[in-house]
Amino acid sequence: MMIPVLLGVSFVIFGMLFFAPGDAADAILGDMATPADKQLFREQQGLDKPFFVQYLRYMKGVVFEGDLGTSYVTRQPVTDEILQRFPATLKLSALSVLLAVIIGISVGIISATKQYSFIDQFATSISMIGVSMPNFWQGMMLIIVFAVWLRWFPPSGFSTPMHWVLPVVTVGTNASANIMRMTRSSMLEIIRQDYIRTARAKGQSERVVIWKHALKNALIPIITVVGLSFGRQLGGAVLTESIFSIAGVGKLMVDAIKLKNFPMVQGGVLFIAFVMSLVNLLVDILYSFADPRIRSMYTRPRTKKPQPAKEAA
Amino acid sequence: MADNEVLSVKMKKRGQSKEIWRRFVKNKGAVLGLAFIVLLTILALVPSLIAPYGFDEQMLSRRFKAPSLEYPFGTDEFGRDIFSRVIFGCRISLTLGLVSVTISCLIGIILGCISGYYGKVVDNIIMRFIDVMLSIPNILLAVSIVAAMGTSFFNLILAIGIGAVPGYARVVRASILSVKEQEYIEAARSNGASDWRIITRHIIPNCMAPIIVQATMSIAAAIIQGAGMSFIGLGIMPPTPEWGSMLASGRAFIRDYWWVVTFPGLAIMLTVFSINLLGDGLRDALDPRLKS
């Protein structure tokens, strides 16, 4: 499923940028170039070939050599530039999602177990505000308060753990709002089930009931949301990275768009779509850890009789 | 007899909308959200009534004035009153939200209907296409569309609208699949109703609740996304008082003048917050089963 989707993504993005008005030759060579120079550039880059020839050539490079083309601006391979920037983006995403999971799930559980209490109402209103806040604005507010006024953390960069705090808190708290809401509603549904009452009736401690019986059964939708927010964060890196001046894939792409550096834009989108589909795969694998029913779909039932035809082979 | 029937149908209809309204009013947050949206709509329609200054009235002698009675939100680097600019910004953000949602709603409903109603090969093709769209993060899709077509207000609206299509297509398809096998559809078909009539008169009205909720929520998302796009310079360009582009141009001064970026962002947050409250309220009012 993953490969056809990625092929589709590449086709859509390639097609969109191919038919975009504005000529790459003009953008790269500038106003000083003569028409002959431009023609030569187009021939060198293969930009004068028909659409499908260009697309097939591009895909051949991507699939067989991991080659996403050459950046118009730096003349470096796009793949290299992306891979060089990716660790920062990945670190930011992973740390933020981790923070979001810790906050989101614990607050969600407290909210669900104490439904309609003051804590619950406070947490749900805060999370509603969190969902409504533009991520990049929240980042700027944190910079003003914690970097400019209080001087606790540096306002930009991503080199030391001190630099990580503001971006990770920005993205993490924002993502935790969604996770918290999902945890709460999923837990509320589960703790009304009969088997929770049974667990309580047999004298199981409340802690075990919530963490083992309830949370384990509420986990599937929570995993879905965590996966989604990881993906959203990868795309949203375009904004957060430019706020905190982090040299990641997102900032690379924003800069590329401004210069009409299409191979870079194309490569960036394709790369992020690829990472997202890996995340989706991971989510599917986590499902089977969380739910034995899903796991059993992938393993052969033990009672099944071995088929004679297969034995022969 | 016929009159009687019409009357009873009418009464039932009014009764239903009354019932929805009654449930809606019970939710204080939703009413508050609705009230704030009404206020915003008024601001968007007649901004000059409330705004004390024009959105592009520059005066270099009053650059970077802190918030005061005269300039409630302070002034920016050109000496423009931020309060007035925020008010003028309402129109842009609300237009962006409404128009882009209309676009995505229409395309999404059409795709969802075809896919859910006809099924089989058509369904497969459309849904695979939707899968492709979904695996490109929304903001990246919008970024690529604007990068390809050039920056303008309309392209921004289109880019955001297209990004939201998959959501609608899925919601519509799912509700059509649940409605399709009901007896009243079979009854309509046995009466000789055409596909078009069944879809428009029987299926869509019965799928309206989730679509309305989805539409409300995605207006909020569209406003945030539009502001984000303008922020990275792919949306509405600086002289226009769009909230996101105000944040972008104020960003250079956050070290010394906090108010330049605080208030436009606050405006985005309050707008989106009240739309979300409204959406939550609508969901609970339209479908009480979902509430538990």
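qc> Chain B touches chain A through 43 residues (CB under 8 Å).
qc> done
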